[in-house]
Amino acid sequence: MEDIISNAIDKLKQKEYKLTSQRELVLRVLLENEDKHLSAEEVYHLVKEKAPDTGLATVYRTLELFNEFDFIHSIYFDDGRKRYELGSGLMKSHQHHHLICTKCGSIIEVNEDLLDELENRVSQQHEFKVINHQLKIFGICKNCS
Amino acid sequence: MEDIISNAIDKLKQKEYKLTSQRELVLRVLLENEDKHLSAEEVYHLVKEKAPDTGLATVYRTLELFNEFDFIHSIYFDDGRKRYELGSGLMKSHQHHHLICTKCGSIIEVNEDLLDELENRVSQQHEFKVINHQLKIFGICKNCS
DNA sequence: TTGGATGCAAAGCCTTTGCATACCT
DNA sequence: AGGTATGCAAAGGCTTTGCATCCAA
Prior knowledge:
The structure is a homodimer. By secondary structure, chain A is α+β, with helices and mostly antiparallel strands.
């Protein structure tokens, strides 16, 4: 994990962004909760545990910054707030999908990719240059059924 | 279209909801703009053209009601507001996906469904009972490339 | 007639912005 | 030292809620 962090720090410095303790902490929190799809507020609370003086606005600004670097990217589930996942700027980004339980709200990640064929067909039919995709599968999870 | 509307009205009345002119108008606006993924505010403006006294809160409440009846369902794209599509309570709901242009923001619907195989596999591996899915494909549309 | 539906305005969330201060480089 | 980053508080969007009035059944 330290590798990933120093890599990210290098990228920030290359573009003349400063390394502050808050930025590093936000990054660590995101990495330590990789699979949790944290919201800004959740990141804020986790950061506050280690650095109580941190402001919410800083967390928002940091998340936006990281988003620009593709360290993370945001996704809306159905509670109307942005949630964040690690992105291609930090590590090899694997294609993955989300299983969302409509009872308990838990989110399971699935690392499949069977969509290439569909993407190709769609590209041709609509002259649409595919960059990325996002698949959410709704249903009932193991625990809730 | 009148068939669909009277069918919907019947369903409302069966559950003792009143048919108001506002509710009917919202329904018509949704049907007339089936493929546009309107937001609440957009529905509101379209309704106001025909009934200027309508309040925004009524539109929100009506959309929530229609959502409970599965006349429509909401989906978040990336502008952070709910947008609505017709749902299974109104008509045979076809599986469809969205092509979202990251330049101009236009949304194209695609009526493919190649996801059954993936759904089956995922169901088994994770003991997850699939109800529905949502696929967004991001890229550059014909006009923007 | 009467309880649900409406319109208006206020309040609630989440997120962004302004500004004075703090702190990386 | 200088300018970016921060924290706080205020303001901005979108959505929901409270309340008096209205209206479909």
